[in-house]
Every structure is written in structure tokens, then in C-alpha cells.
Hints:
Mean pLDDT of chain B: 85
Shape of chain B: globular
Largest sheet of chain B: none
Low-confidence stretches of chain A: none
Radius of gyration of chain B: 19 Å
Largest sheet of chain A: none
Distance between the termini of chain B: 40 Å
Oligomer: heterodimer
Number of helices of chain B: 6
Structural class of chain A: mainly alpha
Low-confidence stretches of chain B: none
Number of strands of chain A: 0
Mean pLDDT of chain A: 92
Helix content of chain B: over 70%
Shape of chain A: elongated
Strand content of chain B: under 5%
Order of helices and strands of chain B: HHHHHH
Structural class of chain B: mainly alpha
Amino acid sequence: MSEDIINEGKLLAAYIGGGVMLLAIGILNVASELSESTGKALELYKPLGAYSGKITFGLIGGAIVWGILHFVLKDKNADAKPGLYFFIAALLLATLFVFTPFIGLLE
Amino acid sequence: MNKLVKKSIVLSAVSIGLFAGMTALVHGAGAAAPSSLYSHEIFAVLHGFLGLLLIMGLMLVLGGLIQMKVNGNGFRMIKVGTAMLLASSIILALSGIYLYSLYRGGSVGAPESARKIIKASTRPWVHGIMMEMKEFIGVYVPIIIAMMYVVIKTYGAGFVENKKARMMFAVLLTLAVVWTVVTFGLGAFITKTVPL
């Protein structure tokens, strides 16, 4: 019964924002592996190399999407289930994108 | 349940304190000699220990979920447990990032970095595949646990009655367990190959 009452807009925003964080990290990793100049551009902190930029920009990008969607969807009657599917797909893709033998196929 | 959570926190803090204190008794700890136990090594051990605690915490939340299914109780254990998991997974990821900088650049007592040693060894794939993967999926774990926490915050006490919420939480919990165990396993293997 309570499933009809609860507003899942904020949860949907979280799933999409979290998914974008994961995807952004994965895509930035592939981009830096394929392009040396991208890798150098992502080097924010030398001891960590390009990893610093991948994580920083990935998290910030996802957080911005999460924040915007939170305000857009917070009062909307949304279903969070598609968001969960998106999050799971993003997690699987993001994991694939950091698996170096897969990146080797793209080179 | 509240007492149980409090006792668990106190016991964990005492245990960590005991082990951290014991390191001072190790011969050569902190001294700058080739056979010494360095502070970053103690830090690495605590990082691994916290990773193990995270896996155990995930199991505790799973226990709460099962208990809730059996007798309707366990919501508080799940709520407090998830908040603690979120905090510990963030600390774990941050400490992992710090240790990764030592892995790349070397540290006191280690003239060559672990990364360099592995890449020059007969098993460069330990870095090329395992470490490259671990450094990222370790950061994915707090994001998964953050989603678990948002599910709890969205439904509140209604979580107990809501089948959809419980299903979503169980799916995320399973993902968190799998990703944490894989990260932990990769970390253990890399450390066995070349310690920091």
C-alpha cells in the first residue's frame, strides 16, 4: 500500500546521479588510455597521475547531475525502478571500462 | 538492538586501538632502518583491516534484512549499519587513494615503487590488470552504499512494509558485497606480490 504513497523522485535522482558518476569515471579512464593528451590533461595531482582527474571530474560530474535532478524530481511522482536498472547498467559498464584487456580491444 | 549496535561500536574501537597499540611493540617500528616497520605499512595494514570490517558490516546489514523478514525487527540495525558502512567505505576509499600514491611513487624505506617493481617483474599483469581495476572499483563501493543509504532515507520506517524498497536494497547490498569482496581480493593479491 505504501508503495503508492512514497515519492521516489529523490531516489530516482540519486540513481541517475550515481550512475553518471560511475560512467563518467569509466569513460574518462578509456579516454585517457586511448589519448595521451587527455591523460596528461587529467593529471591534477602528480603523485596520483591521471587517476586524480578521472576520479575528481567523474565524482563532480555525477554530483552536479544528481543535484540538478534532485531539485527537478523531488516533488514529482516518479518510479525509481528504471533508475535502478540504469545504475546497475552504469556499474557494469564502468567496471568494463576499467578492465584493461577490454580497453586493449579499442586501441 | 540499540545496545547491540553501541556494544559493537565500542568493541570495534577497542579492537582497533589494541592492534594499533600493539604495533608500537614490534621491533624497529618507526625507525628508519631497512628492516623496519614503517608508519605507511601500519597504515596499509589498517586499510586492509577496515576493508575486512566493511565486508563484515555488509554481512551484518544482510543479517538485519533477514531478521526483518523473519520477525519484522531489524530496521534500526539496517539504518545504523548502512550509515556506518557509508562512512567507513568513504574512509576506506580515501585511505586507498593515499596508499595508491605511495604505490606509484614509492615511500620511505622503499627506493623503488611497488608499481615499478611489478611492471619490471615476470608478472606485470598484476599492475596492468589487477591494480588498474582495483583503484577504480574501490571507489565504486561508496557510491553503491550511498544508493543503499538513499533508499533507507527515502522510505524511512515504511521500508519494512515496502516490498519494492526491500528488493531494491537487497539488489544494491548484493552489488556492494560483490564489488567489496573483489576489491579486497585484488588488494590482498597485489600486497602479496609486492608489499608497499
